[in-house]
Amino acid sequence: MGAVSFDASVRGPAAARSRRTAPARATRSATPAGAQTLDRGLQMLELLARPEHASGLTVTEVADRLGVGRTIVYRLLSTLESHGLVSRTSEGRLVIGLGVARFSTALLPRLRTAALPSLRELAETVGATAHLTIVDGDQAVAVAVVEPSWTSFHVAYRVGSRHELSRGAAGKAILRGRRGEHGAVATDGELEPGAHGVAAPLVGVTPIEGSVGVVSLNRLTLAEVEPHVLVAARRIAAALR
Description:
Layout: H1 12-29, H2 33-49, H3 59-66, H4 70-82, E1 86-88, E2 94-96, H5 107-126, E3 129-136, E4 139-146, E5 162-164, H6 168-178, E6 185-188, E7 196-202, E8 210-216, H7 222-240
Antiparallel strand pairs: 1-2, 3-4, 3-8, 4-5, 6-7, 7-8
Helix pairs in contact: 2-4, 3-4, 5-7
């Protein structure tokens, strides 16, 4: 970073003008075009990462909030989208992409470390495959899965499995949490014929949107399974705060 020097021999009004104007010159030189583009890109990511914008923003909305033109937003979007940092929903709204996880190698391991003990207890108690699912764009992605050890058969639900938020217990629970609603949701056969799910939203873990649930080939009774799922969701949320 360049230094700004002053002539110690200058006195009077000229010196005052030098002192007033020199910092402005230094500020301009410290913010080249490349740095400004980076700053705007980071502002855009921070904007989209806010919980109140979980359902996404349009290009016009992003431009208005950043105080820039739509053309600039499209330029930023082109780069951020190519790296998976921003995604577009089926309606064309801009949302944070799961690619942001690459900037913190500890993020997904931390999620799994926080979730696995509670998921293991949930799977063993209910006798069903337990999972932690988070949002990626308009899809739900499983990031931690534990299968029960004592059942004769169970659902093989893989880490990385994804589906639309509008289908399946995990996605619908996330949408329920987005609306500020609590409690678990149950679904039957929405993702796979014969598969039954119960899930509850992960609450109070800003900026992560997620859900905790179970999936089974046996029919699950919401009244019986919900208390166990809610306990697991609360414990995982507490571990992530």
